[in-house]
Write a structure and sequence with these properties.
12 helices; alpha+beta; five-stranded mixed β-sheet; 13 strands; disordered N terminus
Length: 431
């Protein structure tokens, strides 16, 4: 259901798609996620004793209660900032979560918002390329699980990694939406792909899952049209008329503040969708407009009468994870949260010990007619490449819990956690 041509940022209750930073007010407070659920792959449990790690913000660790049957729910209560599962994003919370193309997380990252009494779920780590590493231990386990023999081993293993990535991307996005009451989608100028995404989310809202928890949710879709080059009301009207009014049936609503400043937004009531518009925040018009949009959205989320789901967050999370696993996994079992289990396979970066064996990515070895001066330059580039480090985000959370299958050791059946055959074969389709 993703994306723009940019990385996806999804949100708990909010689905923020787009790697463009959306700012509604200045002097935002820098903050970090309260929870991060690392989900390397939707079929992780096909490897026995695998787990998904739950990281907890260092400021919340002091509230950890080891004997609590619902540890995450307990931490939410202790934060004194959380009431019901809604959602929000930087522009609504007046905070500055990690963002941009140099920032990556894995799985679901969650922030507890004091501003809106909401839980914000961000899938910033999704839509990333396959990682630049080799994990031979995991590969060996996967070859056993999926019966990959030596014939065409490399091709089949590469195909499997593509299938796992594709299924995991979908799983993370489906889970974020499944946990949310409000989904926020950020687009630029509307494209056909954006329209397909909007229609797909609208369809998900209309056709609730068979899960009892999901049936209880009241869901809304907020679409933010981010017009970064618009600095006056006349151009904004033209953009709205071009990209919004034609493909969507609904009506405009005007919101005034106490200074008689106003914004307009577009309501598609039939599909539970509201379209908001953002302008160039560097202009006087855009700054005033954007801040009023943020204020309006905050008010709408706070005043929304979301039904109490009458269950702990842990229960909601685990049931949603299992429900969404069913889309790609053969027969997933129930899940449970346990104290952190340090059994994850370690990531091994691609490195060569000796300079003479380092791969030269800038020149083919068969090229022999390169002038000496250029060869020296190429050697410098190769050395620079080998010394460069990939961009990573500092992990300010502590691994406190693990999510694992809720079974006894003698009940483990590997096949239940395998990808469906159709998902493996379809990964070769090129669009």
């Amino acid at each position: 259901m993703e994306t723009n041509n940019n990385n996806n940022n999804q949100i708990s209750g909010i689905s923020k798609k787009n790697d463009d930073v959306v700012i509604i007010s200045d002097n935002l407070k820098n903050t970090d996620y309260d929870f991060v659920i690392e989900i390397p792959s939707v079929d992780s449990f096909v490897i026995k004793d695998a787990s998904w790690t739950v990281y907890v913000n260092k400021d919340l660790v002091k509230h950890v209660k080891e004997d609590s049957p619902y540890p995450l729910d307990y931490l939410l209560e202790c934060s004194h900032k959380f009431s019901t599962v809604k959602l929000t994003i930087n522009l609504i919370n007046n905070i500055n979560l990690p963002s941009g193309s140099k920032t990556k997380t894995k799985g679901l990252s969650m922030y507890i918002s004091h501003t809106n009494e909401t839980l914000f779920i961000d899938t910033q780590g999704s839509n990333a390329q396959l990682p630049y590493f080799v994990d031979e231990n995991e590969n060996e386990e996967l070859k056993k699980a999926y019966n990959i023999n030596q014939a065409d081993e490399i091709i089949k293993l590469n195909n499997l990694h593509l299938a796992r990535k594709k299924a995991t991307e979908s799983f993370i996005q489906e889970t974020a939406i499944g946990l949310s009451n409000v989904v926020i989608l950020v687009v630029n100028e509307m494209t056909w792909h954006d329209l397909q995404n909007i229609m797909a989310i609208q369809n998900k809202i209309k056709t609730q899952s068979s899960s009892q928890i999901e049936k209880q949710k009241i869901r809304k879709l907020f679409v933010f049209h981010n017009y970064m080059n618009i600095s006056n009301i006349e151009d904004l009207m033209a953009m709205i008329k071009t990209y919004v009014k034609t493909p969507f049936k609904g009506y405009f609503h005007t919101e005034f503040d106490h200074n008689d400043d106003f914004i307009i937004y577009y309501i598609d009531a039939e599909n539970s969708t509201t379209h908001f518009f953002l302008c160039n925040h560097g202009s006087d018009f855009g700054k005033k407009w954007n801040e009023l949009v943020g204020k309006t959205v905050r008010s709408k989320i706070k005043n929304q009468n979301f039904r109490n789901q009458n269950c702990e967050f842990d229960t909601n999370l685990l049931e949603t994870l299992k429900e969404k696993m069913k889309i790609s996994i053969k027969n997933p079992t129930n899940l449970k949260i346990v104290p952190f289990i340090n059994t994850q396979t370690q990531v091994v970066e691609i490195q060569n010990e000796h300079p003479t064996t380092k791969s030269n990515l800038f020149v083919c070895k068969r090229q022999t007619s390169i002038p000496l001066m250029n060869k020296k330059k190429l050697d410098e580039l190769v050395d620079m490449f080998n010394k460069a480090n990939s961009y990573t985000s500092d992990i300010n959370q502590v691994p406190m819990y693990s999510i694992v299958p809720d079974i006894k050791n003698n009940e483990y059946e590997q096949w239940k956690y395998e990808l469906n055959n159709k998902d493996i074969s379809s990964s070769l389709i090129i669009y």
